[in-house]
């Protein structure tokens, strides 16, 4: 077996990022993923453009998230289409969605209904804020979750307004948790034969993402995180932890003994900070001294001193510098995928290696409904034959 | 039944990336045994945030290592190594996050372990893969953020690089390790064979940025362009961002600029709205000046009924006392040996409506040696 999920069939009714990022991981690990999309528009993110990049008629985001999947159009308001989806689900190992609470019930595709016809299915659902409480009907959108959960007070310096994290990290974490729950349930099914309902929410995942800082807050008498005035990288860590401007760029320094650092860079004022407890208490002063000192020389100058001494530091890079680093050629490797119409593009690949093998697939992004005919002829052949006999 | 009940995981890990993977498997029902050096145990026990300790260990250690067992062993002592190999015989999963080569030197590399237990799923985390000039460098979260380009996505246009204020590389890599291990366990139930699962912090951060790096790979290599003020995503057009109000801040996601032009009486943004990305800074500045004139509550009372995607920017006081937080039972208590209670977050995954909780704290070093020797050995 080359990929671990090779014989697993996933029916994915989700759109945007949280759900589809989960089914992308399942696909990369070998599962067959059929994306169910509404007629005409399909998944809204097909046309959710970021900047102005358009690739073969769809947004770059859609391609990044939905490569390696099939697309099947169904109008879930038409009973005959719902019948087809139910038939597909009967053959599936996993069914998943990220509709707001109540929508799947109205469509007759909720877990209770599905479980009655397919007791050992693994049914995954993502919500914004869970199934209880006053937020349950609020849109589950990444930035809103960052805002509500306190996350915007962790990044940036103390004198900055709240700073959002510039990646849809709550979506991605939630998708990651859904994959964990689905796979764990498949393991259990292997033992007990039973299906499962797996529920995750962006709210719970946002708390898990902040498990370190929220736990600190809950046990330190509810002190709010305090970002440092300069060079903040983690509101909870002492100096020198942060990013520092040099003469020609930026240098990141992680946990390091301040006095030892002072000796290495020949900064007398820092050598005096010998008490580790003071590295947190006096972090503003230490960062100010260090920042002034590091700004006098180039990043390479400092790296040449600090790296041989095993100080935890690194140059701050852009993607250009990262992707041009030939010493990391295996780790940074991308992959090229091809759509059915021949359009090909370069994208990132699954970060998991199994038995030394990367989990690659050339399968590109599906155009809307490209697999209807094939799926009707194969997975749905019996249903469609039965229908024509009845007519 | 918890889904991973009956599975035994040996965790040769320290700090966060590996232990966070062990934590999730423990949450889901596995028996997770930390293998630690006698006396001091793993380094994370002494790594505190805000100098916060509970007993002998940092609160951070309990946060990441709740619900685990500890077996202490000196891996350089042949008699201890024999016991460890016995444990490996009984285990389903082994994970480690030592620098490349360390486990091999101890004769506990994948090949050694596969000989002892051919059904073992062996997971390993490295910083940068097994190559390159950084191979011997520590896989430390901030360094990975800095190397991977991530720090150019947050903050405003004229800000220096702004790192994410949480350990996102560690977190994502731990998530990926669990995914790989669980997938391999599913395959094992069919093939009977073990597997080697490798992840590294750098690949995990590249994957974390998959949308924007894919864009970069297909837009002639442009670099991210953060908004001048209120930036929340370098690649999304106005109004996406955070805005000051008269008494706080409001986050606003993708929205119809025509609606906002009418609601905020900003006719001047209508001609700019045709291309919300190019004119992003101008549009955001106009919206910012309008929103600054009234309170967050005021704007929410107008926008929420209109289904505009916005939210108040809350701090932890506001968040953890909100009925929306309380309704979801997001906390759990863990009880230390001396009876002290710590509050922490819980597993974000619910199965069959069940919330997974455990009151078991992070273990003391070697707390379970005797019990494990009586049962497994």
TrEMBL record, chain A:
<dbReference type="InterPro" id="IPR003673">
    <property type="entry name" value="CoA-Trfase_fam_III"/>
</dbReference>
<dbReference type="InterPro" id="IPR044855">
    <property type="entry name" value="CoA-Trfase_III_dom3_sf"/>
</dbReference>
<dbReference type="GO" id="GO:0008410">
    <property type="term" value="F:CoA-transferase activity"/>
</dbReference>
<dbReference type="InterPro" id="IPR050483">
    <property type="entry name" value="CoA-transferase_III_domain"/>
</dbReference>
<protein>
    <submittedName>
        <fullName>Crotonobetainyl-CoA:carnitine CoA-transferase CaiB</fullName>
    </submittedName>
</protein>
<dbReference type="InterPro" id="IPR023606">
    <property type="entry name" value="CoA-Trfase_III_dom_1_sf"/>
</dbReference>
<dbReference type="Pfam" id="PF02515">
    <property type="entry name" value="CoA_transf_3"/>
</dbReference>
<keyword id="KW-0808">Transferase</keyword>
From TrEMBL, chain B:
<dbReference type="Pfam" id="PF02515">
    <property type="entry name" value="CoA_transf_3"/>
</dbReference>
<dbReference type="GO" id="GO:0008410">
    <property type="term" value="F:CoA-transferase activity"/>
</dbReference>
<dbReference type="InterPro" id="IPR050483">
    <property type="entry name" value="CoA-transferase_III_domain"/>
</dbReference>
<dbReference type="InterPro" id="IPR003673">
    <property type="entry name" value="CoA-Trfase_fam_III"/>
</dbReference>
<keyword id="KW-0808">Transferase</keyword>
<protein>
    <submittedName>
        <fullName>Crotonobetainyl-CoA:carnitine CoA-transferase CaiB</fullName>
    </submittedName>
</protein>
<dbReference type="InterPro" id="IPR044855">
    <property type="entry name" value="CoA-Trfase_III_dom3_sf"/>
</dbReference>
<dbReference type="InterPro" id="IPR023606">
    <property type="entry name" value="CoA-Trfase_III_dom_1_sf"/>
</dbReference>
